[in-house]
Amino acid sequence: xxxxxxxxxxxxxxxxxxxxxxxxxxxxxxxxxxxxxxxxxxxxxxxxxxxxxxxxxxxxxxxxxxxxxxxxxxxxxxxxxxxxxxxxxxxxxxxxxxxxxxxxxxxxxxxxxxxxxxxxxxxxxxxxxxxxxxxxxxxxxx
Length: 142
Description:
Helix 2 (29-36) links the parallel strand 1 (18-22) and strand 2. The longest helix has 10 residues, at 6-15. 25% of the residues lie in helices and 23% in strands. The chain is α/β, with parallel strands linked by helices and 142 residues long. Helix 1 (6-15) runs parallel beside helix 2 (29-36) and helix 3 packs across helix 4 (132-138).
């Protein structure tokens, strides 16, 4: 596992039972670690990847298939383009997830409260469950 993701993995595993990683790019260290800790996990990307024992699916978070994310308590991403964060939030709201978590590139601030320390810093945004359907129906982020 990437040392910079150890705190992120522990935070998610200690608080949630199900998670979807957005834009995982075929890198499965966090996903696999969460599954080993007993979480129900999935991962999405705009490219197709397949790993034995892990559910991965093709989806574009900017025009999401909401049913693929149902049941997720948290959506998270490691080093996503910051412009995808509002789309993640809309999907999280639409499926009644509790939060989105962003492990950004160094120096980026995607919003939310800071957790972790050193190179393990990540940001947590609690979800407003009243707005998601509006975002998804309009098929765009605010």
